[in-house]
Amino acid sequence: MHSKRPEPIETAHIDDIDRKIISALHANGRISYTDLAKDIGLSRVAVQARINTLMEEGVIERFTAVINPGKIGITVSAFFNVEVEPKYLHQAAELLAEEPVVTSLYHMTGPSKLHMHGLFVNNQEMEQFMREKLYTLPGIMSVDCQVLINRYKSRMGMRL
Predict the structure, then answer these.
(1) How many CB atoms lie under 10 A from the CB of residue 19?
(2) What global pTM score does this model have?
C-alpha cells in the first residue's frame, strides 16, 4: 500500500494593489466595487477583475458575515485538545468536522492531536456533545477542554 503524497500548494502571485484590495475587503467585505476602486485608484472594472482573479486562484476563498455568538444566545466557547489513536485520526477528524458546534478543527504536531474549537448554547449542550459525540468516537484516548473566559483578540482573515 502506497501513501499518497499531498499535492504541493501553489501560491498565487499577488502584488501591492492586490494586497490593498484584500486589506480593504478584510476591513469591509461589503464595500462596493465603485468605492473600492476610488480608494485604490483603479477603475471599477479593474477592481472587479482583480477580485474575480483572486477568487479563481483561491486567494479569496469566500465572503462571509462575522457573527457575535453572544448576541444569538451562544454563551460557551471551548477549546479542545483531543488525542486519538493514529489509525483513527482521519476518521475522527472527518466525523468531528461534520458537527455544527465545531467551528475549527486542526491536526497538530504531537501524539496524534486534534485541536478543536466549539461554540455551545450552554454548559449542558457542551457536556452532551462531549458525552454523545466526542467520547463515543473510535480511538479517542484523551480529551482536554478549556472554556474561554474572555476574548481579547480574535483573528479574522490573514496578516498581509
Answers:
(1) 11
(2) 0.75
Residues 29, 63: contact at Cβ < 8 Å?
yes
The model's pLDDT over 26-63, given as tens digits with 9 standing for 90+, comes to: 889 999 999 999 999 999 999 999 999 999 999 999 88
Report the DSSP beta bridge partners of residue 115: 81, 106
Cβ partners under 8 Å of residue 19, min gap 6: 160
3-state secondary structure of 129: helix
